[in-house]
Design goal:
By secondary structure, the protein is an alpha+beta fold. It is 50% helix and 17% strand. A six-stranded antiparallel beta sheet has the order 5-4-3-8-7-6. The protein has a two-stranded antiparallel sheet with strand order 1-2. The longest helix has 31 residues. It holds the Pfam family IclR_C.
Length: 277
Amino acid sequence: MPETSVVPEDVADGSQNAESSRERGGGIQSIERAFSILTQISQQDDGINLADLSKAVGLHTSTTFHLVRTMVELGVVRQAKDTKRYHLGRMIFSLAASSSREVDLIATATPYLESLAQGSGEGSHFAMLSGDDVVIVARGAGTGAFQMVERAGGVRPAHCTGIGKVLLAGMDDARFEAWLGGTTLKALTAKSITDPEKLRLEIEQVRKTGVGYDDAEYDDEVRCVACPVRDFSGQVVGAVGVSGPIWRMTLQRMESITHSVRQTAVHLSKDLGYSRD
């Protein structure tokens, strides 16, 4: 008779879990069980063995073993060679550190954004890369009428926004070319750059000047200027920008706003430990 573990596991989990198991897909149940395992491991200062872990999460030993073995392979759990006890893996701490770093960065950037918005009268924003996406992670509200609303969490196209061009310019050549090869340069306005070679030249210019512009390339009625923010290692970790309506953001006025954005990026970069020396 072939071995089956579905029925015993459902019994071990209790009748309520058995009913929810039938209602949900196996993939969702596996995720719930994995998080249950992580929670139990995180509560044990000296780690936990397989038998105790199985009992704590209410699963058969074989089921727990297969789940935790996969988690070990992924790096979210580690098993001590001498005691065979399970502990949280390096990836968990890496993810937590990364998240904490982003939160700290946003908290550091916000006062600068508010000051920049007050000084320029236009909406300010701070953007970071999430994979290949340009995400607005913080903003400052301008004081002028008809503000460009940059919602925190909003995603912007990289090739036709000032902040996006700055973040592209912060990539090394290999990563930029990989991004370019996997991206469709869509025309959102008549001024949007859709030619890869033209974008390469634009990004090279941004690298030289340290400023990225959007001259009605994302929105027909909006101009934007942005500058890079660097951390202690010199890597571009974000972009500070200011956006406003073209009838107020004249090319002449953008010169003074560019200076303010550049200074804001410089001060924020210094707070993150960056120094040109």
